[in-house]
Write a structure and sequence with these properties.
Elements: H1 6-20, H2 24-53, H3 58-66
Helix pairs in contact: 1-2
Amino acid sequence: MQRDTTLGAIDELLEGVLADTTDPEVNYRIRTARQLLSVVQQRLDSVDRVIDEADLDAETLAGLRELGYLE
């Protein structure tokens, strides 16, 4: 996961907490949270690929950015 994204920053924080804990239940929850972040990242990557492959005009892209769907 890229460290320069919000999801990457969250993953990095969770990784640090995981290294600091010895409680098996907490370890399990943190590992699960990290796996869920990975799933979210994969879905975002899929959306990015679809948008890259779509033939959208500049106005549509600008509208999607304005609505917060694209960066």
